[in-house]
Amino acid sequence: MKDFLSINSLEEFATIYKEGKKWHCEGVIIFYTFSSEKKIAVVASKKVGKAVMRNRAKRLLRSAFFQVKNQVKNGKYILVAKTSIAEIPFFKLEKNLKWGLKKIGCIK
Fold it and tell me: Which distant-in-sequence residues (6+ apart) come within 8 Å of 54 by Cβ?
């Protein structure tokens, strides 16, 4: 987590959602915008479940992203958990995330 900063401001979220590349994978939606800095945000809405399920979904996404963090380009990333993330095994989630990042073009 030391390499990546958090995305906190509402303006950054809005610009990434509006202007960034978007890709749907099984269990996650990836938003990416090229930038000189490395930033990440992991989001899980109330549709995913109660607080325990949302926190687990965010932990899974962070863990899967940081497995491939050395391969990704600089930029701003938003990972949005889908409702189906609870039924997906971790290795499949990691594989889908890597595939989505490759499709967007943000893997070196």
Answer: 44, 45, 46, 48, 81
0.85 surpassed by pTM: yes
Query: What are the structure tokens assigned to 1, written together?
Result: 């987590």
Which is nearest to 43 in space by CA: 2, 19, 12? Answer: 12
Contact 73, 21 (CB under 8 A): no
How many Å apart are CA 8 and CA 10, to the nearest integer? 7
Calpha distance 108→96 (Å, rounded): 17
Per-residue pLDDT of the chain (108 residues; tens, 9 = 90+): 578 899 999 999 999 999 999 999 999 999 999 999 999 999 999 999 999 999 999 999 999 999 998 999 999 999 999 999 989 999 999 999 999 999 999 987
1-to-23, 63, 68 alpha-carbon distances in Å? 23, 10, 12
